[in-house]
Design brief:
It is built from twelve helices and twelve strands. With 279 residues, the chain is of the alpha/beta class.
Length: 279
């Protein structure tokens, strides 16, 4: 069964000792038999849905560590005993390969992320949240109404980078008071800040909206670079073959079709076409 730890760079080694199981009841398998997965916060809910079938098919027990891609990257540099790193960008996995901390032939793109504006005050279903509210209207309201906006921290979170690119492209990065920007350590924290009502508006991952049956206002792709999400197997891993099985599983046609329904663009163009037909 899957174990999950939510860990920050400062509490990482403590988290290894005091594991908190969030996806499922903890496995009774010895730690030497468990595949340690470091996953970006944005993909963690999707992984939760995908791992049970993987474990059933392979008999492999897993333990999942969730964090921002930047923090997990730093933990790997400090010797964190992960086997596979499922990141929310392509920069950190590539850096790990260059540093010989990850296996170059294991570097794979498994999904592309997209983002939307969302507020908890909008209608909580998959219909148009407000027919009179458009992307263009929001861009005008943010500086005019001095709306606070939650985004993931762009220095450590790829979805934060995309949010900053949007704000820069629309000149809002220069226009808004920086006190209006509420930065979460990862996209999950940003989503929770908006969902709780603590911040009235946020730039969140489409996957979060779909998984929670919510509707946002899509941000056109021309305003930010594609969020190419890659995974890589770590060089220090003693479970390379098991990690490769997980990589193959995530890139299989069946799983890519599922990923395409969870708010991501799949790696295979045909699967993206099927998702568009269903949107």
């Amino acid at each position: 069964m899957t174990k999950v730890n939510i860990c920050s760079i400062t509490l990482f080694f403590l988290a290894l000792v005091t594991s908190q199981a969030l996806f499922a009841k903890g496995s009774s398998a010895p730690s030497s038999k468990i595949l340690n997965i470091a996953v970006s916060a944005n993909f963690a809910p999707a992984l939760k849905k995908l791992l049970p079938q993987f474990e059933q098919q392979t008999g492999i027990n897993t333990q999942v560590f969730i964090g921002s891609t930047g923090n997990l990257f730093q933990q790997i540099h400090h010797g964190a005993p992960f086997d596979i790193f499922i990141a929310a960008d392509k920069l950190r996995p590539s850096k790990l390969v260059k540093a010989k901390l990850a296996l170059g032939n294991s570097l794979k793109t498994y999904a592309f992320g997209t983002i939307s504006f969302w507020s908890s005050t909008w209608q909580h279903d998959n219909q148009a949240s407000n027919n009179s509210l458009t992307f263009e209207n929001l861009l005008q309201d943010i500086p005019r109404k001095r709306l606070r906006i939650a985004i993931a921290n762009p220095t450590i979170a790829p979805y934060g980078v995309a949010a900053k690119q949007l704000l820069e492209a629309t000149k809002l990065w220069q226009m808004v008071d920086k006190k209006q920007l509420i930065m979460g350590s990862n996209i999950n924290q940003t989503f929770q800040q908006v969902r709780s009502g603590a911040v009235p508006l946020g730039i969140v991952a489409d996957s979060q909206l779909i998984l929670n049956d919510l509707a946002g206002i899509k941000i056109p792709r021309q305003y930010y670079q594609a969020i190419e999400q890659q995974l890589v197997i770590l060089s220090a891993s003693k479970k390379v073959s098991q990690s490769q099985l997980l990589s193959d599983y995530l890139l299989s046609n069946e799983v890519q079709q599922i990923i395409a329904t969870l708010g991501y663009q799949a790696v295979t163009p045909l699967m993206n076409l099927k998702r568009s037909d269903n949107d």
